[in-house]
Design a protein that fits this description.
The complex is a heterodimer of chains A (about 210) and B (about 450). Chain A is of the alpha+beta class. Chain A is built from 7 helices and 9 strands, in the order E-H-H-H-E-H-E-H-E-E-E-E-E-H-E-H. The longest helix of chain A has 15 residues, at about 25-35. Helix content of chain B is about 45%, strand content about 10%. At the A-B interface, strand 1, helix 1, helix 2, helix 4 and helix 5 of A face helix 3, strand 4, strand 5, helix 15 and helix 16 of B. Strand 9 of chain A pairs parallel with strand 4 (about 300-305) of chain B.
Amino acid sequence: MSFSLNEVEATARKAARGAGYDWGLCEEAGRAARWLCSFGLDGCGALAGQLRLVDGTDLRVAAPAVAARVWRAPEGAICPLVAGAAVSDFAFRLAAGGFALDSVMTPILLLPFAGAAAHRTGATLAVGWQGFAAMTDGRELDLGTGMRSGFAARADRVTIEAGGQVMHALQRASRAEPNPDDWLALERFAQRTYAPATPESRMLGAGAGMSDND
Amino acid sequence: MPLQEAGRISERELVLSRANRSVRLWSHVVDALAEGRQPDSEMIEDVGYLMRTTAVYGSGKFGAADREVIADRPELEAPFQAEMLSVYLTRAFVRDLAERMARQRGGRRAVRLDPAIARHLGIGNSTGLGMAPFLVNHPVLFNNWMLAREDAVARVRAIRSATPAETDMFRRLLARSAESVRRWRTAHPIQAGRVAGLARDLEALELRVRADDLDARYPWDRLMNWAAAALSMEGQELLASLMLEPYGELVNPLAERMSDRDADAFLIDGSMPIAELRLLIESSFGWALAYDWTARENTARAWYVSEEKLEPRLGERYEEPVAEFEQPLAPARDAAAAHAALAAWDGCRPVAEFLHAHPEHRHSVRRAQLRRKAPYGEIRDNTIGAELLPIDMLRAKLSFFGATRFDPRSDRWVRICMYAGAPNPEELTEENADLWVYPAALR
């Protein structure tokens, strides 16, 4: 089925909340999924995969320490949403040298944040890991001759550095056609944010008041 | 599409809405037309529309085209143009439907609806809580609307002298506004009191502009200054709208700035010093920092989304199990919490460091930084207090759509009317496309 990018963003935001992220990061997750989909990449699949990975885990241990030159999580792999937000927030440090992140889950989800960092700094950024290289200036994305799907579920080291330029910008897409299983997974996560109806909420939640049928 | 909210539309569609008949007026109008006579004008005035729409969905909802797909078309550049057009066309369709049913029932005896009555009828709308979070979730868009209006009012107040044609137009429209107020029906006690106050305001305003010399210097500024002490809020706002009318050339260009094209406003500036962020929070939410957020009455409500309807609802935090499902629709409370957490931080450090340590305040930091681009982006009141009236939020938005006859049916849903007085599509011209919102008497 074909979804609007607005639907992708809204569903992704709710799904991230359902998986336990703070609201501000959920906004980032929604925007990240939309950003990938807007270049015809599978943002929904990437986010669904990531949420499946972290569901039920302590999200704090997947947050990297960012003071060092190489970012590492205290335990296990880095969450790309938490780290991505930091990439975007610490973009002002990029001029002094790039970022390196050790052991990252669903690394494709870092791209939208690199795009945001590129946008903030005005520099084109190169993002790479084993078998993958991308350039983005925030508005355009160039994956070179590399693949457009089947991205790694994990990367041992991701680098984000200033330099280069976008040569072959990906075509923009105005719709997303996610794999039905991934979309369903996002909806299931989103479902957790909905409050079950109670007799009180049926009566009062929307405002009983007068009839609308006269 | 029999079930609106279970349906799917495509990128070829822009808007999805449905309309319900007014039980009171529909059968009366169809019966009358079938019998060869025009409907009773008193009933027409009393109800004001044949059908009312409910939610009017656009911007990618239910699979429709995203806003971005149409945003570059000049005729759709301003916000909600496609949605507004669809409601306007629904009004014409509803008239055609009533005439057709009358013809089927009455055969040759049936007559068409008098075009003057058809013009008089608007299209109703019932709107609920779904619209209230919109204001909170689109601070830049909402800011742009408020800014356009505030700018327009400021421009007109700065006019040094008014021409006779301008003051004549103002006086004419003021008289016609009294007719609008006369037609405004509501059983809601608060709003009924306000409408009665507005009727008194209009009398006071008429007397004032009869006595006051609008030829003197800065006539509109003087009038607004007088109104601040003499009229209710309803009267002051109506006056502010009315005095814009003679100055279309001056204020209409402001409408071009009402859409939100700034996708980058979302991006957080992590390099901002924490001291600056604190100041931004204080300027948007200064009042909220001194507020007692531990008092139950100040956090009595929680916004949530119901599993059953997938729509925003407002619950009683301390009486229902809704707090764990709370939506981030209390920016004032959350800003105060972020401000408190920031107190322990060195003001020279970058915001990025705070956010990395406190991801739970990220949404509040984003909003605070928007303050620079969107000074009118925040509702300066508590959106979760026991005293909250969501209908006030609905009215703020609906007023920008030109809604009339604001009629709250509880504290959380309202009925309104749109396009009453507007020419129907087949009679629309450049000359009659403006000012129809000020009614002339039906007979």
